[in-house]
Amino acid sequence: MKVFLDSVGLTEIGAAVHRRCVAGVTTNPTFLQEEARGRPLAHLRRIVEVLRPHGLPLMVQVMTTEPCEMLHQAEEIRSALDYPGLVVKVPCGWAELEVIAELDRQGITVNGTACMTAMQALMAAAAGARYVTLFYGKMSDTDIDAATVVQDVAQGLRGAPRRCELLVASIRRTYDVHECLRRGAHGVTVTNRLLTALCEHPKTVEAVRGFAASFMPLDSVALRPR
C-alpha cells in the first residue's frame, strides 16, 4: 500500500522524500492558506522543485466551489507548475462530475476527493478520476462504518474498465492505516505526525535499548583487510 504525505511544509516533505518512504504528496487549501501567505502557486512551485528529481505525484485541490472556476483553476495550476506529476483534486458531487470528466478529456490527472460513500467514489472513478479519496475520520464522525466503505470501494474498483486507485485520507490513528491496508485500499494520506508514528513502536525502542546495553567495541584490528 502506498503512503502519501499530507503536507505543504518544505522541511517535512524534504525529509520524507529523502527517506524514500512516501509515494507522493497531497495538499489542501487549508494547509496552503496557513503556509503560503497569499501566494499558493509560488509555494507549490517550491514543493515541485523538491519532488521533481524523484517524479513523485503532487496532488493540489481546486480552491473554489464553482464548477466553471474549477476548470479555470485546474488549467492555471497545470500551466503554472508545469509538472508531469500534477494531480488535481476535485471534490465529488453531481456538478463536479462534469469537471472531472472534462479535465480527464484534457489529459489532466484527477483525484475525486472528499468522498463519504462508496457510490460517490465509484461515480468519480467512472467520470474519469485516476484516484478517488475517502475521508475516513469524517465518515466515522457521522457513524458511517468507514472500514466497510473502504472495502466496498476497493472491490468495486476491481471491475472498473479504467485503472483508478483508492486513497484514504482524514486518518487520525496509526491503526486506521492498518485497517485500510487490510480492507484493500491502494494508499493512504497521512500527516507528518502520523507518518513518523508509522515507523516507530515502543517495543522497538525497548529492544534496541536492550541490544545497546550489550554493546561492545568492534574488533577493528581484526576487521582490517590484510
Name the descriptors.
226 residues, alpha/beta, TIM Barrel, eight-stranded parallel β-barrel, 17% strand
Brief overview:
With 226 residues, the protein is α/β, with parallel strands linked by helices. The protein has helices at 10-18, 29-36, 40-51, 67-81, 94-105, 118-127, 136-141, 146-158, 174-182, 192-198, 202-213, 220-223, and strands at residues 2-6, 24-26, 58-61, 86-91, 110-115, 131-135, 165-169, 187-190. It has a single domain, classed as Aldolase class I (TIM Barrel), CATH 3.20.20.
Strand proportion: 15-25%
Order of helices and strands: EHEHHEHEHEHEHHEHEHHH
What is the quaternary state of this protein?
single chain
Could you tell me the number of beta strands? Answer: 8
Largest sheet: 8 strands, parallel, barrel
Overall pLDDT: 94
At the fold tier of CATH, the topology name is TIM Barrel
